[in-house]
Each structure stands twice: as C-alpha cells, then as structure tokens.
Amino acid sequence: MERMSSAPTASNTTDNSQQRPPRQRNGPPPPRRQGRNPPPQTRARYQQTNQGLQEKKKPVFVKVDQLKPGTSGHTLTVKVVDQNSVPQKAGAASSHLRPVRIAECLVGDETASILFTARNDQVDLMKPGTTVNLRNAKIDMFKGSMRLAVDKWGRIEVTEPAGITVKEDNNLSLVEYELVNVE
C-alpha cells in the first residue's frame, strides 16, 4: 500500500520563504549614463572639437534709459550716486539661514538713473562715487516700479572712475508700471 503524502513538493509550492537568493552577475557592471558632467577625457574631446565654433561675443553695453521692464542680460557701466541700507525685519529670515544684507543704491549714467538692489557682498562694492560695470543685470519689478539687480549668474566689477555725470532728474524707478492683459 502506497502512502500519499500531503506535504507540498518544491514544484508546487508558493511559499515566499523558499525564494532563491538573487543571482550573481558575471563581469563588470553596466556602463553609467553620461550626466551633466561627462568624464574628463570626454570633456576635453568636446572642447577640442568645438574650439573653432565657440567664440566669445563681445558685451554690448547699454545705457540706463534703454532698460525696459522684465528684461535681463544687460551689461552697463554706471556710477553709484547714493546708498540706503534696508533694515532687516525681525521675523523675515529663518534662524537657520544667514542674515541677508540689502541696500538700495541710486545708480545711473548720462541718460538716466535707476535704483539698484544690492545684496550681501554686493553692498560693500556699491559705495557712493564708485563706477561699476554690471554684467548680466536684470530688471525686477517691485511695487510696480523697475529695480536693477545682479543675481548669482551676473557680476559686479568696480572700474576706474569715469567722468560720468549722472542724470538724476530722469529716475526710471519713479515711473510706475501696470500689468495689462491683452486679449
């Protein structure tokens, strides 16, 4: 007489405790994708092949009266007329962030003047009477008026004093703009 076993065999079991260990790979791992920063040899090859194509453009200097709301990428030479420090509000910054120094500086050239918002280390560069080159400057709108600013992608360079007489009676920051939806 044969006995029938009620115990499950390995072929018909569905128990998760008897799963196989993960399979070991043979050979090197698959190649990694090339991200934003390729390896040095690829980067050098790219620079060699494109050296003739990537010529730097000369900056186009604009005058202050040519600035329009919402534009960016301006390069201009201005003279700092005045600097007013903006007081920091008590609850404005979180305790884990470093304090932000902000100053509003009146800058301009022979054509017009505008308020420049200087932040942190920029405050030390923007002293009254100095002449500065602003590279990659942008126009920010604050309460309907234009403010000139240079963010982390731009640069402020103090240059030798130029004979610029600032036209203070044409202050572009005093002009109030209103956003209008055109249908």
Automatic annotation (TrEMBL):
Source superkingdom: Eukaryota
InterPro entries in the cross-refs: NA-bd_OB-fold, OB_Ssb-like
Biased composition (Polar residues): 1-17, 44-53
Pfam families: OB_Ssb-like
Residue intervals of the Single-stranded DNA binding protein Ssb-like OB fold domain: 67-158
Spans annotated as Disordered: 1-59
Ranges of Pro residues composition bias in the record: 27-41
Cross-referenced PANTHER family: EXPRESSED PROTEIN, OS05G0244600 PROTEIN
Protein's name according to its UniProt entry: Single-stranded DNA binding protein Ssb-like OB fold domain-containing protein
Record organism: Brassica napus
